Amino acid sequence: MGAKNTRIKPSGPLQDEQGIILDSIADGVFTVDQDWRITSFNRAAENITGVSRDEAIGQLCKDVLKADICERNCCLRATMKSGKPIVNKKVNIIDAGGRKLPISISTALLRDKKGKLLGAVETFRDISVEEDLRKAILSKYSFEDIISKNHRMLQLFDILPDVASGGSTVLIEGESGTGKELVARAIHHLSLRKKQPFIAVNCGALPDTLLESELFGYKAGAFTDAKKDKPGRFQLAAGGTLFLDEIGDISPAMQVKLLRVLQEKTYEPLGSSHSIEHNVRVIAATNKTLEELVRQGRFREDLYYRINVFRISLPPLRKRMEDLPLLVEHFIGQFNLLQKKDIEGISAEAMSLLMAYSWPGNIRELANVIERAFILCKSREIEKRHLPDSLSADPSTCAPQKAHSLRDVEAAYLLDALKQNNWNRPKTARMLGMHKSTLYRRIKALGLSRPD
Amino acid sequence: MKLALSVFKDCISTVFDSAEQLIIVETDGTANSRKTAHKLFAADPIKRATELKTLGVEVLICGAISRPMQSSIRSQGIAVHPFVRGAVEDVLSAYQNNRLALPVFSLPGCRGKADGCYRKQSRIRGQAPGARCRWRS
Questions:
Q1: Is A99 in the B-facing interface, judged by CB distances under 8 Å?
Q2: A368-380 pLDDT, tens per residue?
Q3: Residue A59 and residue B108: Cβ atoms within 8 Å?
Q4: Are residues A112 and A10 in contact, defined by beta-carbon separation less than 8 angstroms?
Q5: Are B82 and A98 within 8 A, CB to CB?
Q6: Are the C-beta atoms of residues B69 and B42 closer than 8 Å to each other?
Q7: Reported ipTM
Q8: Which CATH number fits domain A400-446: 1.20.1290.10, 3.30.10.20, 3.40.30.10, 1.10.10.60?
């Protein structure tokens, strides 16, 4: 590094030429010397910051840019220290009018012809339009508390209001962690019952006798220690919605009782000789395929048809990987609020790792992975090192698939590369060192398609 | 009276919205004053304004501040001197001597404007114009 007080000393004609070039650029550009004082400031920079060139020149860059990172995570300082440029980092500035603007900044070192360090250059772009657009798109992909751009989920968003207003029993099928309760809650909130209670019961977690007393309640004296009446979940959900999770796990005896309750719209609390009428909408959910259980004789056919009035099947996360970046962003925002942190996003390398994982635990597992990363992450971006080792050790991401031919090997290799880049084909082509049209041709020839 | 300055090291923090440290200067109307440091926790404008109110702040001197943040703080009856820069001691002295409007204490883009960057010197409720500038009453 040169003398501390080195200033950029542009010569006359070159400065004019440089000035014209800089002013014709749509991005804001300024240069600083080694004391962080601004030495040039183009027209776009004036427009974005609301600070005139005359006022900006000679000032500390932090006082002119007024960005939220200036004091603790200055990009120019990082570039000056490491010598490495920073590209497209999203930060917020406050312009002279008090408007908070999201901008994307890039930094690089500035050297003279002999390679002597003069200072650094920062370019920045107002991305408020992109940010507004991004928010608009995100709202398009959100429905109640569900986030997805998967075509099956978008179809579900379209029909959910009709399903909700119908009042029929709904069966939600999906692997554990796919958001079955979230969908059930969405149906409840969209229905006329929204002001009444939503009660959830995990049928798989309770033994038969306990489940019966939980659902239907009991009368005083029904059994030892039953000293007073206890209302069941059906009574608590009066006028509202009862969500019966893991319905596929209930015993045959309980299936009979539940069938009667659903058919006759009445139930009997334990120890009572009187039936009570109920006005409860039942939404059942299972992580098993009920049709298969019926075939195996483990689930009553009549109960299956009684609850299967409208069936919603939720795809697992591995079949809606296009949602992963949206979900990651959602969870980062959520944990930022809950834990009062300011993590901005996730590095490309970490995202590639998430994209390559098979997510057997689905969205719940993803939420846990992000929550864990929040504990470890002290920077503004979640890095690969903040993610659990199990993601890298996932056999589906590491072990080569058994291939039968050279074509299979090529297909598996390309598919893996595409997954790593979130099906961004130009990026994948760059990574593989091939022309993008070659990649397109190979994708077509091998019949590869993006998972839905 | 309680005066708060948002600070980073020994200077006024450049952006109040992301500032984490506050120095509160309490004066009893005489030359005596007591300084205490506080950490700001809330980032949301309404919560941050409530945090200042809870600390009993009546006047805030800060760097660049977004409009929603400034509105929230003013709605709590707190007077705001925004877009201020400089060393804490210099700024404090300038405030006490009614010299805070000098260009040297204004962030670039705000100089030459009578009230700094959209600076409306809101009065503390119940005080006459100019009274806010009198540090020792």
A1: yes
A2: 999 999 999 988 8
A3: yes
A4: no
A5: yes
A6: no
A7: 0.82
A8: 1.10.10.60
